[in-house]
Amino acid sequence: ETGVTQTPRHLVMGMTNKKSLKCEQHLGHNAMYWYKQSAKKPLELMFVYNFKEQTENNSVPSRFSPECPNSSHLFLHLHTLQPEDSALYLCASSRAGPTPTEAFFGQGTRLTVV
Amino acid sequence: GEDVEQSLFLSVREGDSSVINCTYTDSSSTYLYWYKQEPGAGLQLLTYIFSNMDMKQDQRLTVLLNKKDKHLSLRIADTQTGDSAIYFCAESIGGGNKLTFGTGTQLKVEL
After folding, report:
1. How many angstroms away from the CA of B103 is the closest CA of chain A?
2. Alpha-carbon distance B94 to A1, whole Å?
3. CB-based contacts of A63, cutoff 8 Å, min separation 6
């Protein structure tokens, strides 16, 4: 248990569906991240939020829409996804700032797009 | 540009040492990290090294950094079956909180 909780753990959705992934942390962190993990590929940073403000969008398609209503919660809204979007989506949190800081990861949501 | 490379698989026998290698391209990397991912779990930080260091030891783990060759390695002494996992190398630039990860190396420990 890392203190970062993601729901759901598994999600199967059709290409016309709309769904949301949720991430929650109560570690007092003020930076939150979404990563995409695909087999045999580097872990891809998707979005970064520092103090609820989005500071990084790593050329992610608009069918992925993040939302950070407060420092403890992060959502990833999904719509009209493609089969190649099937992957493990990991949320992480950390302290914001220039010094090395440990990022705590959730267990991920295994997404399958059919 | 940012690019972190690792071999995909490593197999060792229990009790042997494991060495997981990583190369990176950005010479302005400030910190380099090793994360471990066990099956069905997220990533967990194992250790990190500042770019002005060349070695860091923490119990069974030894990190070596060759900044000239942009090469980072993680040595696990007396490897146990519980060490079986995926190990990710990551770099941050300028000390910020944006991490660039490699593909991960799947370590399999055989009896």
Report:
1. 4
2. 30
3. A78, A79, A80, A81, A82, A85
Q: How many Å apart are CA B70 and CA A69, to the nearest integer? A: 39
Separation between Cα atoms, residue B40 and residue A9, nearest integer Å: 10
Taking only the tens place, the pLDDT of each residue in B14-70 is: 999 999 999 998 777 778 999 999 988 889 999 999 888 999 999 999 999 999 999
B42–A107 C-beta distance less than 8 A = yes
Q: What are phi and psi of B108, to 5 degrees?
A: -115, 125
**Cis, peptide link before residue A100, omega less than 30° from 0:** no
B97 three-state secondary structure: coil
Considering only CB atoms, B95 lies closest to which of A41, A90, A98, namely: A98
> Residues B65-86, buried b or exposed e (16+ Cβ, 10 A)?
beeeebebbbbbeebeeebbbb
Q: Compute the residue count for chain A.
A: 114
